[in-house]
Amino acid sequence: xxxxxxxxxxxxxxxxxxxxxxxxxxxxxxxxxxxxxxxxxxxxxxxxxxxxxxxxxxxxxxxxxxxxxxxxxxxxxxxxxxxxxxxxxxxxxxxxxxxxxxxxxxxxxxxxxxxxxxxxxxxxxxxxxxxxxxxxxxxxxxxxxxxxxxxxxxxxxxxxxxxxxxxxxxxxxxxxxxxxxxxxxxxxxxxxxxxxxxxxxxxxxxxxxxxxxxxxxxxxxxxxxxxxxxxxxxx
Length: 235
Prior knowledge:
Blueprint: H1 21-27, E1 40-42, H2 50-56, E2 61-64, H3 72-91, H4 108-128, E3 133-134, E4 148-154, H5 166-179, E5 180-186, H6 199-208, E6 211-217, E7 228-234
């Protein structure tokens, strides 16, 4: 007699996500003072409102993502398609993502609202040339050494092990540590909820390079299995 196994599958291609500010605060275990003490790098920023909210709070934040080479109109089209992809992906996995009465993941309306705020801020940035959104990609960032107090990188490293190999992870983390005194990475799982298989070897390599590594327990806002954040500091 066979038993049904809940469907768990990865998202596929790298997503331009619209995670809200509150998710970032929880997932990176951030204190309020860490948002305003010094410049913060959000990389990749995607279609989230983290940078815009930090600036509203009186802090300084720069978001980096390869999609920021697009015009506001082009990016709005891409983000709309990505939100539809998230909705379809989450709706197909009700065992992982709580669905509402329409069969839609409960967080989808929040993501759509976040994306709308981001797109308004992105268009304003392009119009005013404020430089809050920089089109670039890891492992090469266009900033001098030590530009930022804190760098946050969510849902890229470890999330797509079938897209990025171990060498990329090491080069990306080294680059983040070049431009920021502290780096936090979340989650430590891929998009199907599996822990990154080469994490121990990566941590050993980083420690050998003089990097202090600490695992922080956090609450996953999208998936309960995303329960850890990696905090890295340079010696």
